[in-house]
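Design a sequence for this backbone.
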């Protein structure tokens, strides 16, 4: 779960609503130069705020960039009967990208967002200039005694208050600044229970799409934080190899490099975008 260190919205960043044929999506956007457009897709329990620190850095490099809340996340509404399939989340990404920018977009998916972006490339390869995968993997994350995802699904489908579920997931928030603690709770309580349960199921059963992605010919970048402990490192390394590249490791970061070391991430990602 990504936790912001600062809630101040940089002057270059606009908070907005993006109207698409698939609905309205809350977003943070920056207007850069003519280098291209970047779409940033957040992960499980995430939101657009997971990318706020790197938006000004992308703009300074000449890129327009859009980070958005996926369907049912935080400030993007999600009806109980909405399309929460992996294909549906991917179609949302296509709709947001094509609403924001006419030309093919550079696509980055973080964590669960990486599963969404992989499906988006397989389903609509012509929409994308490139695919970047950050702290994600080739398919299912799976569960473990430390990560009982089936119990989380059961809790989301029960009357258990979202605040109690958050505490079970994240533990005590008292060591966070008061405004950050309040934001994390508000974001979680505003997230659709149905959407989050669907995302959790996708973490348990998503197929490996690597060979299909490679067949599209879309350029790929794969990276992780040096101390990331989500998807197994050997699986990430193997996926990078199958996509014709090598894993890029961002120092001084774990599962949220865009928050933990934004400049380090940009320094290691921009050469690929510019390439």
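Sequence:
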């Amino acid at each position: 779960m990504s936790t912001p260190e600062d809630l101040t919205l940089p002057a270059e960043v606009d908070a907005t609503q993006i109207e698409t044929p698939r609905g309205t999506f809350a977003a943070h956007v920056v207007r850069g130069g003519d280098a291209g457009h970047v779409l940033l897709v957040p992960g499980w329990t995430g939101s657009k705020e997971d990318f706020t620190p790197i938006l000004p850095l992308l703009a300074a490099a000449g890129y327009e960039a859009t980070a958005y809340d996926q369907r049912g996340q935080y400030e993007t509404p999600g009806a109980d009967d909405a399309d929460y399939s992996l294909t549906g989340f991917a179609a949302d990404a296509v709709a947001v990208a094509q609403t924001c920018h006419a030309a093919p977009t550079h696509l980055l998916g973080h964590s669960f967002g990486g599963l969404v972006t992989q499906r988006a490339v397989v389903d609509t390869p012509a929409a994308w200039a490139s695919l970047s995968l950050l702290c994600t993997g080739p398919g299912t994350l799976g569960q473990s005694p430390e990560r009982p995802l089936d119990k989380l699904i059961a809790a989301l489908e029960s009357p258990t208050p979202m605040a109690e579920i958050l505490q079970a997931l994240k533990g005590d928030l008292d060591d966070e600044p008061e405004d950050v603690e309040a934001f994390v709770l508000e974001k979680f309580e505003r997230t659709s229970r149905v959407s989050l349960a669907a995302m959790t199921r996708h973490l348990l059963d998503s197929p490996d799409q690597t060979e299909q992605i490679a067949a599209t010919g879309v350029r790929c970048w794969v990276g992780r934080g040096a101390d990331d402990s989500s998807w197994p490192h050997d699986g990430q390394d193997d996926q990078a190899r199958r996509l014709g590249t090598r894993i890029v490791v961002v120092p001084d970061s774990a599962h949220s490099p865009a928050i933990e070391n934004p400049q380090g991430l940009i320094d290691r990602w921009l050469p690929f975008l510019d390439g």
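The chain has a mean pLDDT of 94.
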